[in-house]
User: Fold these one by one.
Assistant:
Number 1:
Amino acid sequence: MAEKGKLIVISGPSGVGKSTVINGVMREYPNLHFSVSATTRPIRPGETDGVNYFFVSRERFDEMLANGELLEHVEYVSNCYGTPEAPLQASLDAGEDILLDIEPVGALNVRRKRPDATLIFLAPPSLRSLRERLVGRGDTAPELIEDRLARARWELEQAEKYDYIVINDEVTNAVGEILSILRGEPNAEHCRAALRSAILKEET
Ligand code: ADP
Ligand code: 5GP
């Protein structure tokens, strides 16, 4: 029987660079598969249904929830997001590593249900740089940016509950650190949340 795959969770505030860094990681680590979440939020320019998310109605989302199809779910800034469990389990059973890009409430729920999961928090170098990236991405309305920053402050406080913290100063550094965590390399130990959470508090 194939060895089971690893379940990797990456969280971090909206705009910190998760999609950018995840794309970089997936290019270098072919056995990694992305878990496509369901969401009720509107599709953004450049996104594809079934690739970035399954964009569903609120009724369909509630049906998935009632049928027990979601490993975890959350309501985040007025929209619902959830992780479909069946495709994730199929990947793990086939020996594929699977990556979830989910916010901290969901991440900590995954940890409760799947204690073997590896939790990585992607942090911005500062709150100011986070605001600049959110504005620079150009797809979030100004009033939503304030909502997302308020949420980010709370999310950063959750980082110490993760296994690892990676600071996304330069994309290539962040990608490199995540690859060393996935490959179990000794220098991944520098990213342990127990070591880095103090630095994060000083810098943000
Ligand atoms: P998220 O998926 O976390 O919401 P994105 O990957 O969409 O974030 O990145 C938000 C914006 O920040 C994008 O415009 C992206 O190009 C930019 N960005 C990502 N990483 C960095 C970085 N290390 N330095 C500067 N800008 C970055
Ligand atoms: P965005 O709308 O910017 O794509 O995502 C908003 C937030 O929702 C991000 O922090 C992202 O990680 C999180 N998210 C995406 N999918 C899921 C999911 O299935 N579950 C949870 N808990 N969070 C998710």
Number 2:
Amino acid sequence: MNGQEFWFVVGSQFLYGPEVLDTVAARAEEMAGELSKVLPYPLVYKVTAKTNAEITEVMKAANYDDRCLGVITWCHTFSPSKMWINGLELLQKPYCHLATQYNMEIPNEEIDMDFMNLNQAAHGDREHGFIAARLRKPRKVIAGYWKDEGVQKRLAQWMRTAAGVAFSRSLKVMRFGDNMREVAVTEGDKVEVQIKLGWQVNTWPVGKLVEVMDSVTDKEIDELMETYRASYDFATDDIETVRYQAREEIAMKRMMDEEGCSAFSNTFQDLYGMKQLPGLASQHLMALGYGYGGEGDWKVSAMTAIMKRMGKDGNGASAFMEDYTYNLVPGAKYSLGAHMLEVCPSVAAARPRIEVHPLGIGDREDPARLVFEGKEGDAIVVSLVDMGGRLRLICQDIHCVKPILPMPNLPVARVMWQAMPDLETGLECWITAGGAHHTVLSYDVTAEQMKDWAANMGIEFVHITKDTTVELLEKELFLNDIAWKLR
Ligand code: MN
């Protein structure tokens, strides 16, 4: 994607002589080439490093080169790790240690001490692992045979996570209006977020957006209407209302593209000069990969953009979501998630419909929106909260189901799910950790990816799984408070 790549750096030393080193280099090149065929980004073999200077040089180059999203290391042979200290200390990109071996099997007849000297990743990788542990360097360790599908899948996911790290560090968020009045969890320290996560979060006046909306031409609206027709069913005759959403979408996209923004927030409390709350407009922008947060929630907007980028093909099935209401019937306990309008159609089970209905909030005209059901499958919900002095990323495993009721009078997109470990315990854990009502729901990004992303950004990560209990979580949060104060 866009010429981005990962670098493969293989550790060794001079002890083995040129023949062994040539073999290591040739095999590393072969492995990088084969892995590039199945991974989402090319893996470029850089060097079989034998000295401190070589390692320092390649790490400095990795930092400087914008194409390089991260470094994957491996030790085919033994590489004394004091040589790695200076380079690893300088490395500012995500770092993965692939603990693998060129050969799968130990060859019974062929194995002798020459074979042992060439194929000694088992102790080379341990020496290499020690120094990153000693340096407290955030890194991903993936162990297993490099041709194994499971290993390749985890490498692919780690690459997408690293792409999310790079994306986060250059992310700009466009705010239209401020946060919804009096709401706490959507607030946050924008300076701290820029220091930790790289986000540039700034505000543009709604009046400016209205000016740009006025400059949108009928021809531009006609073109976007064609895109809407190709993607969605029209379940309304109120074409003018849909065209107004197209006008809003074109204007917001133009402003974001001019400023290099990939995410935006707005609020129904500040729609000055606008006839409709953007519904379809925000939903289609999310489908294109832009992040969105309602009620001024710029944190969830940025997380939506990042998690979309971390998903399949750089725009996965991830959506701005809000916990709305429960079905508390024994044997059928579910959460129903939705929003006033703005759920991304990337999570739809079937082709969405464009509908026009009144909106009881915001005091504007009836807005057009996409209505659909979320698909069935395992997913996560993720919330970033500002704990005062630090950021906490909360992730919960969920299983989405086909909604158990048709709900014919509910005029918004909806997703129904079972929270882990169960509705009540999951809810108690979520509330105990301080998780927001706004989340990013993703079928595409895994909890492991979010854990790795948080580690790279240097923020706290809390994972609510099928095994979590309230008591264990309370202990974890108590210890986390102490640990993060010490940092
Ligand atoms: Mn909301």
